[in-house]
Every structure is written in structure tokens, then in C-alpha cells.
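Issue 218. Parser rejects a valid record. Input:
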Amino acid sequence: LQLLILCICVADDVYGQVRYSIPEEMVKGSFVGNIAQDLGLDIILDNPMELHRIDMEILDINDHAPVFNKKDIFFEISESVHSGAIFSLDTAKDPDVGTNSLQTYRLHPADHFNVKILSRLDGTKYVEMVLQTTLDREKQEEHKLVLTAYDGGNPQKSGSISINILVLDVNDNGPIFLQTVYKASILENSAKGTRVLQVSAVDADKGTNGEVTYSFSRGSLSDLFDINTHTGEITVGGLIDFESTKQYEINVEAKDRGGFTNSSKVIIDIIDVNDNAPVITLMSFSSPVPEDSIPGTVIAMLNIKDLDSGKNGHLKCFIRPDSPFQIKQSSSNFYILTTDHVLDREKISEYNITITAVDEGSPPYSTNKTVTLKLSDVNDNAP
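Output the parser choked on:
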């Protein structure tokens, strides 16, 4: 959804809003709407300045099929693995949205396995393969399956990946995590190598059959976090930015030497730090202005925002108190600069106005922006 800001000078002090919906891949130059007519604007004058909001909704069409990153997946599974064992599968990607996006998965054949479709906190779907009936290596040593992802478009599109399973002999116990869900919190910008938490799984088997190794499940954030394959300790491995992602969800897999696996979920909350200064954007500026402009005349419109959250993103905006101008907030993140007193070009013909924005972080960040306003002469003095 695109947001357009339209500044229009009209006679009446009335603010409006209009919304349009257009399909993606619309031909350049196609008619969308008559803004002036839809807003009911009749006469254009010099003042005051108005802010109108125009929402532009892009409607998706089903022009992409679900796609897997690989052509096939290989598993080694012991014949003694019990029913209900879970195996992480690659997820398909579909850039379409709504009903046109990825909706479901199907597995064929389904005589030993079926699929379990789950959703992450952000609504994206991922899939796990669940063993329904025990395997027997002596009857069938290899299993070849096909996992197909379907979207909800009309006509429906799909993509597939092959799953090859080699059945291993003996070893009758798999790893079990001590917790099904692990949670931790870390500061954004934490240095690489910072400890996040440690996962742990136990295996009832003895010797090498009871040794467990840890890894991130397929598709997890291996570029942002690292895991020690022997201890299960998770550490920071990349740049963590709160403004980019506030929470991460990772699936961790424990595997023994016989091929038994189990998975657990790790949820990592990112704590914001004040690492962004306010940004001041000058949207419109009128210079020169007549020296006889009445108090309250709009000189400039500004957009002032801070990417941080909470107090770190709360802003105070001001100018010098002895200035014949004032700045005030007109709506969220938008401010107007107006005259506050009668001006006199014969006394002062030009003003340098500095706008300062300060956040409430600790320590606080601030930003200054200076605009130069010139006054135009009017015939207000006799010889």
C-alpha cells in the first residue's frame, strides 16, 4: 500500500482523503483517478496550505508459482524411529499475496509419512514431515516421496521437491529436547559472538548412538546466529537490527548418529537501543514571503521522524523562543512552520531559522535543519 501526500492551497480549511485500487502490472499512463474532482476541490487560492492523504492499493495477480530452493532433500532415518517423529522440510516461496500466496502442502505417497503445516508468528507457513507408520529396512530400504506446494490462485499454481529417504538399521532412541520452546532477549547491535542461550537434548542410547549434534533447521537464520554443534550454544553471528526485525523464531534440530532427529523452537526478542537520530525532511517551503504577512501564515511543512521505538523514538521539536516564528505539529510526524508576529523588511530582511528535533533516548540524539527565509517588500512607507 503506497501513501502519497498532496499539498494543495484552497480557499476553505477542509482536509480530505481519497483511496484508489489498481492491479499490479498496470500499463504506464493508465487512468487512476481525478484527484481534484474526487476530493471536491473547486478553487485554487494562495493560502492556507492543506495536507491531503491519498491511499494507493496495488492489487495482486497470481503470476508466481511456489518455488523450492532445491530440487531434492535427502534423509537417513533409522528403522527404529517411532511413529510421530518429526522432520523439518524445505519451505517453498511464493511472492504473491493474499489467496494467491502459498496456502498448503501435499505429500505423495503418504503410506508412511504425512505433512504437518504450521504458521510462524508473522503468518508465514512452514512444513514438517511426520512419520505415521514405522519403517522396516528389511522390507524397503529406500523411499522416494514428492512434496508439492500449492497456492490459492485461480487457476492454482504449484511447485514440487523430491524427498529421498534411506532407512538405517538399529538404534532405537532419538534425542529429546528438555524444552519445546526456548526464549531469550538480546540488545540490538550485540557484538558477534554474544551468547544468546543454550539448547539441550538427551538421548537414552549409550555410546556413539547417544551422541547428539545440533544444527539449525533448513531455512533458519544461519546468517544472523551461530550454533555450536556439540554444546547447543547459540551466539550472535551477524548484524542484529531492531528496526529491521523485532523478533526472530528459529527451529533447532538435534540429531544422533543413528539418524534420529527432533526439533525445538527458539524465540529471540530484540531490545531496542537508541541508535537512530531524528530525520527532518523539508516537504515544502515558501520564500520570499511578503513582509505584511499576517501571524499564522504557513512558511514550511516538515516531516520529522525517528526509526527507534518507545521513548527512543519520541520527539520534541522546537526553534529559538525569541524568533518571530513558531513550529507546531499538524499530524503524526508532520509539522508546520508559521509566522508568529508581524514582520518588517526594513528592520530585518532575512531570517535563518533553525529547527531542532531531539528524541528521548539515553543519551538523546538530535538533528538540526536551517532554512533561510527572505522577506519581500511592500509599499508601507511614505517618502
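Fixed in the parser; the record now loads. The chain is about 0% helix and 50% strand.
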